[in-house]
Every structure is written in structure tokens, then in C-alpha cells.
Amino acid sequence: MSFEKPSKPSLLIHKKGEAIETVSTKKSITSLLTSHDGTEVIYHELKEGSRWGMAPEENFNSLEAIYVISGKLRLHTLKKDTILAPGDFISAQPVSEHLVLTAMEDSSYLYVSSKPVFHYYSNYTKELEKMAVNIEEKDGYTAEHCGRIKQLSMLVGEKMGLNSEKLQKLNFGSFLHDIGKTKVPEHILLKPGKLSADEWEIMKSHTVYGAEILRSTQIPHLLLAAEIVEQHHERYDGSGYPNGLKKEEISLESSIVGLVDSYDAMTTDRVYKKARTKQEAIKELKHQRGLLYHPDVVDTFLSIINDT
User: Fold this and answer.
1) Residue range(s) of every CATH 2.60.120.10 domain in the chain
2) What residue stretches are annotated with the HD-GYP domain (predicted)?
3) What distance in Å separates the CA atoms of residue 163 and residue 181, rounded to the nearest whole number?
4) Ranges of CATH 1.10.3210.10 domains, the chain
5) What CA–CA distance (Å, rounded) separates 50 from 101?
6) Could you write out the DSSP letters of every residue in the chain?
7) Digits of tens for pLDDT over the chain (308 positions)?
8) Which of 111, 132, 162, 260 is 20 to 30 A off residue 18, Cα-Cα?
């Protein structure tokens, strides 16, 4: 009996910090450790306060599992929250509901999937996030703008008791809220003076463009986030855009991002506008409570921002 020699070594040894491929952001590190016959083992690091999630996907009947290595994670499901410590293990086949992990301190874990996901999800999402940061920098914000919007939006959503599906939607929609500006001509986006009526109509289209970008990916968590991207400039009294939605016609997650984005715009120095003080911005939000902004979102946001 003869045995065929493997085309590549069957034993692979990776020293600490080595991996097949790694995708890094300021808040996370994701490393593909090994992959064979569709199964992937992925190492994750999350900084305190950052989040990661899993979502059900049509025709995806694969096994997905997480083993906690270090730190402390909060698992948010539709029914309850569970604290995960080193040595804890969760698995699902398939994932049938939205699951959100929040790092309560710097944490690491192994994620195993019986279907390849690393290149498609990690790289695609990372590329979109990079585009979002680049476009905000062109539009006069700092690179931290998207991160601030996400962090504050998630704090509001958690305090308002959003379920795991809505939190995952909020996590991505808040960071990518202005991704549609990548399709706005630069001569309009970067114009230092007031936009003409026609230019303003083009600028407002960034909400629709952004939703189209996310929906075209067919990635479940980005499909959810598309609604926020499309609605974050709608206003409670119906005066917003692109569709003039009002009150409960606007998703609560979109109302959260709309308010947080407005607050950040008020308190950020731009080329053409000096920042307001925190107190001035709070006064404006109170004045617009129930007019431009959802009253419950205003109340929750103010209870958080007053503590920061």
C-alpha cells in the first residue's frame, strides 16, 4: 500500500503573533489561524467597549463556535445577557438569532466556523470602514468621527434596551452612516461655501447611495445597517430627508444615529464653522426635543452625555 505525499505540510506551527492573514482596526484584531475544507479557526481581540456579532444567514447551516481565552465578554441575545469568562464556550448550528459580544475589558477568543467567512466578511467590512473614515476626513471631520458616533450610539441603544438584532444593526449603521458620500462629487463635498439648490439635492442623495452600497454586499449585518444609513437624516417632525418620514416611521436606531451625529457635528470644529460648546449643544437638543429629535432618544442621550 502506498500513500500520496501531501502537497503541503500537514503540521503548521505559528508562533505568537503569526497567522495566515490578519485584519486590524483601532479596536480589534482578527487573525485567520488555519483553514481547511471550508472550516476556519479565527483569533479575535477586542478592546474594552468594542463589539462583535454573529447573525443568521439564509441557506447557512454551518457550525459556529466561540471559546473565550482572556478578558470578559457580555453576550447579548434576544432573551438575556450572559457574562462570558475565560474557558467559557458557546456554539450554534446554525446561528438562528442575532448575537452581540461586548468586551467589558480587553478580551480575546477563538471563533470557529465550518464555512469560510474570514475574507468575505472581515475584509469587506474593513474596506467599507476605511472608506467611511476617509470620506469623513475629506468632509472636514477627524478620523475619530465615525468611532465617536458608534460609541455614543451604542451606549444610547444599550441604555434604551434594544435587542441583540437592533444592537448589531446599530453597531455597523452608526459607523458607516455617511458611506454614501463616496458617491458625491468632490467639488460638491469639498465646496467651502454654501451649496446651490441643485448641489444640495445631490448631497442629500448620500443617504440613498449609502443604503445601495450596503445592500449590494448581500452581507446580513450590512443589509440591516442599510436602513440606518438611509434614514439617519430623517427628522421626528417629518422635515428630514430623503423620504420625509416622521415619528415612528423612522426606526429607533436611525433616530439614535441622527441625534448623535447632529451632536457631534455641533461640537466639532469644521473648516467653515467653529464648534459649539457642550452646553450650547445640549441646549439645542433640549430645544429640538420632540421636534427634530425623538424625545426618548434625547432624554437617554442627555442622561449619558451629562456623565461624560
Assistant:
1) 21-116
2) 120-308
3) 29
4) 121-305
5) 8
6) ---PPPSS-S-----TT--SEEEE-SSEEEEEEEEETTEEEEEEEE-TT-EEEE---TT----EEEEEEES-EEEE-SS-EEEE-TT-EEEESS--S-EEEEESSSEEEEEEESS--IIIIIIHHHHHHHHHHHHHHHTT--TTHHHHHHHHHHHHHHHTT--HHHHHHHHHHHHTTTGGGGGS-HHHHT-SSPPPHHHHHHHHTHHHHHHHHHHHH--HHHHHHHHHHHHTT--TTS--SSS---GGGS-HHHHHHHHHHHHHHHTS-BTTBPPPPHHHHHHHHHHTBTTTB-HHHHHHHHHHHTT-
7) 444 555 556 777 878 878 888 888 778 888 999 988 889 999 999 999 888 888 887 777 789 999 999 999 999 988 889 999 999 999 998 888 888 899 999 999 999 999 888 876 676 677 777 777 777 666 666 567 888 999 999 999 999 999 988 998 999 999 999 999 989 998 898 887 889 999 999 999 999 999 999 998 877 788 889 999 999 999 999 999 999 999 999 999 999 999 999 999 999 877 667 889 999 999 999 999 999 999 999 999 999 997 76
8) 132
CATH top class, domain 21-116: mainly beta
Side chain identity at 186, as an amino acid letter?
Answer: E
Q: 264 near 180, Cβ under 8 Å?
A: no
Position 283: which residue type?
A: K
